[in-house]
Amino acid sequence: MENQTYKQTPLVSILMTTYNRGQYIEEAIESVQKSLYVHWELIITDDCSTDATTELVHKYLDDKRIKYFKNDHNLGQFANRNKAASLANGKYIKYLDSDDLIYAFGLDILVEGLELYPSAAIAIASQDTHPTEFKYPKLVRSEDAYKTYFFNDALLTIGPTGTMFRKDAFDAVKGYSGTHATADTELMLKLAALYDVVRVQPSFFFYRIHGEQVLNQSEKIEIYAIEAYKNGVLALYDSKCPLNDNDRDKAYSIMRKKIVKIGLYQIIKKGKIKLGFSIIKHLLKR
């Protein structure tokens, strides 16, 4: 990329976990190959696909930057993410799901953000729909990242395709610890408690929506709401939480009101009484 504002070109490990995404994975791989930033490796960990994924990926292995590993047994989504990270050699790790795409300039802006702000461990796509200034990357201090998440429900809510991590920081918090849909945010909260965050310009990736995705499957409302609440409580009352006591209590109050609202919506609007009360009862388990 011309006119780089950073001096180094560190290795970026792009981590592509996959399971039966043969109809999408070729486009995902080719989007990486089109990157303007060329110092990368692509590590593909296949969680026992039964479709044509293996044959399709092998067509790309002449590019020595691309490495393919097929698991002996199914690990599940987040254990497979951790395995991919364990194979990474880069200073930075960038997850790209095998049904998503990254634009040619994507790696450049992520590397730029983390190189300019070494105190940050996460580069994340901005979610500002109406920014007040046109300036990226933007450093967000650890405390402010927590405030933005808990008070405005923003910043740390984007999935791994919209982020890049410093590998040493990822390893320091032992990667993903969850197995549920909110494990992405759980990881972000662990990192943001210890390190700053850098916002980069939005829209450097294409997030494909289709019916096979985990979050598109029905009957996930209860699990997601409860796990998000539990993650928030654990983060707020962890000794590493960067918020002061007043802000922590304020954040907890906001979370309680939010989960009550979700539960009441299921009871009143959807007529799902059992589901609604199941969500609300978790307020008593702190």
From TrEMBL:
The keyword Transferase applies. One of its GO terms (molecular function) is hexosyltransferase activity. Pfam families: Glycos_transf_2. Residues 13-171 form the Glycosyltransferase 2-like domain. Keywords: Transferase. PANTHER family: GLYCOSYLTRANSFERASE, UDP-GLCNAC:BETAGAL BETA-1,3-N-ACETYLGLUCOSAMINYLTRANSFERASE-LIKE PROTEIN 1. This is Glycosyltransferase family 2 protein.
